[in-house]
Design goal:
It is built from 17 helices and no strands. It has helices at about 1-20, 20-55, 60-75, 80-90, 95-105, 110-120, 125-135, 140-160, 180-190, 195-230, 235-245, 250-260, 265-275, 280-290, 295-305, 310-335, 350-380. The longest helix has about 35 residues, at about 20-55.
Length: about 375
């Protein structure tokens, strides 16, 4: 039955692409424009950087220093802190890519990989601050509320997942950090990887470009699928059916919700158009960005397919993050005054968006690295 269902779904997709070629072209183009504006500048430089840092043994260096923090708080090895930092910096699917790398290298166990995967996938800071808050809402101040809700919800999910599949095995030691021991671990990692720097750089660029292009493909095909679902009125049918059971929620809001379940960006755009009250807008935006959409789910599933990591815990984590982010956003709104009038902002050019996205990710990366090293200094023995 699964084979028949797969063939039937692919046949419908092919039929829709032949019947509505103009819709396919325009929707795929919109997905690629979104990738060019927000995903490429947020991912490519940091993919290359992560490859270089991993080959230089920085993950081992950071692992020794942050073991005494990550182990008691998240039940994860110190090396996982690098994945957390890069995931917060660049947005999805960076966390999934690096988690899969650590698992394939045997640096983390299967359960640790599933815990790590649960809270290292977020929208990029450039998308939340630039595209949603400034571009769609016209209220840049809301970017702080949205990003704070998403990131804090993510940390809470990470803490909750420390109780995921806890075993009563031998207790792992969490010695205090030692710069000398961390430096020795980094040197040993560099010694094992005896490639020349030119080879390391070229392979890092090649691997990063391949990964980023794969993300572009996912975004394009899911934009096409969602456009066809709207053309065939599937989204409208789901919204109308849901309205029968939840009459308090208008059909346009339910349509925006179902669009966001499939593709986060289109759901955010639909939310701005369908919802008028600010607190409802922020609530639905936080929910959809915490959930992230089936497009991101497919990306994560693709990157972990070569490992033994289970996908279901990731789905549970995304559901929890969306619900918690929704609640936190409403709490934050009660303490912050947002102008009621909508600021009309002309969306900046592609080059400006590209630069701003890269800048926001860079600031986030430097901030997280600074915070991690502050934690190391606090944990140092006196």
């Amino acid at each position: 039955m699964s084979t028949v269902a797969r063939v039937f779904a692919l046949g419908l997709l092919a039929l829709g692409m032949f019947i509505y070629p103009q819709e396919v072209i325009s929707s795929a183009g919109e997905g690629l424009v979104l990738w060019w504006r927000f995903v490429l500048p947020a991912l490519l430089p940091f993919f290359i950087l992560s490859e270089l840092l991993m080959s230089a043994g920085f993950v081992h260096f950071l692992g020794v220093l942050l073991e005494s923090f990550m182990r008691p708080v998240f039940r994860l090895p110190g090396k996982a802190a690098f994945v957390v930092a890069m995931g917060y910096t660049s947005g999805f699917p960076m966390g999934a890519v690096l988690t899969a790398r650590l698992r394939k290298a045997g640096e983390i166990t299967r359960v640790e990989g599933e815990r790590l995967l649960a809270f290292t996938n977020n929208p990029s800071p450039g998308f939340m601050l630039g595209a949603v808050a400034s571009g769609m809402l016209g209220k840049p101040a809301l970017g702080i509320i949205l990003s704070s809700s998403i990131y804090l919800a993510n940390l809470l999910v990470g803490f909750l997942f420390r109780f995921y599949r806890v075993t009563t095995g031998p207790r792992q030691s969490s010695r205090l950090p030692s710069f000398r021991r961390a430096w020795q671990e980094m040197k040993e990692a560099q010694f094992k990887d005896n490639r020349a720097f030119g080879q390391i750089l070229s392979e890092a660029i090649k691997q990063s470009i391949t990964t980023v292009l794969m993300v572009a493909g996912f975004m394009a095909i899911f934009s096409v699928i969602l456009r066809l679902l709207n053309v065939w009125h599937v989204i409208t049918f789901l919204a109308t059916l849901s309205h029968v059971f939840i009459e308090a929620i208008p059909i346009p809001i339910l349509q925006a919700f179902f669009n966001g379940l499939f593709e986060m960006t289109l759901g955010c755009q639909g939310t701005i158009q369908a919802v008028t009250e600010l607190n409802h807008q922020v609530a639905l935006l936080a929910l959809l960005m915490g959930w992230s959409g089936l497009s991101v789910f497919a990306q994560v599933a693709g990157f972990i397919s070569e490992t033994d990591l289970r996908f279901f815990p990731f789905v549970v984590a995304r559901t929890l993050q969306g619900i918690i982010a929704l609640g936190l956003s409403q709490v934050f709104l009660t303490f912050v005054e947002i102008p009621t009038s909508t600021i009309v902002i002309q969306f900046p050019s592609t080059s400006v968006v590209f630069w701003n996205t890269w800048q926001a990710s860079s600031v986030m990366f430097m901030g997280i690295m600074t915070l991690l090293f502050i934690l190391v200094l606090v944990r140092q023995p006196r």
